[in-house]
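seq:
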Amino acid sequence: MTKLNIILITAVLSTLSLASNASPLYRFLDEDGVSTTSRSLPPSAAQKGYDILDDKSLRLIERILPALTVEQIAEEERQIAEKKEADRLAEIKAKEDKKQQEQQEIYNKNLLASYATKEDLIKKRDDALSHNKTQIEKSEALLEKGKQYSLTLQQQAAEQELAGQELSDNLKKRLKANNGNIKNNEDAIERLNLEAQQLTKQYAADLERLQQLLTR
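struct:
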């Protein structure tokens, strides 16, 4: 090995040794708020944040942000939780909107397939409401008949009681059966009236939507 090679190797090793022994250079604010550059970093400065600089060019290598306080950590966690919840709700709403859109498209197709004109829909509505009205009238007639029959049965029961007799099993059965029929007819009338309201509302919505689709 020549003397020149030995000198070059020694120079390289010296450079590497100096580089390995170099300590970081820090820039931070001291207790008075003055910007300070030092190779040592006080614990208080580490908590407040600092910069790591290149010890030769003073170029910024890395910026360490201040440590979060307990309150800041709690606030950050709260914001993260709020965002997760907002994302969850947004996803649910998006699915619901998509489902409603699909249902609306099916509804539109069914309307156009069922009615060529608004007059067709109006006729269907009138027929449905007319049938509903007929059913109500039948139930009302049966209800009135049941009430009249109930008066007859009550009169027979009163006559048996006045004669000092107990109500016969046959009369008891007829009273119970007639009361059941009265209740059934009352329920049927209530159900049919509610159905009429729903039919009216649904056909009104169908007619409005059909007019929009036919116009479009």
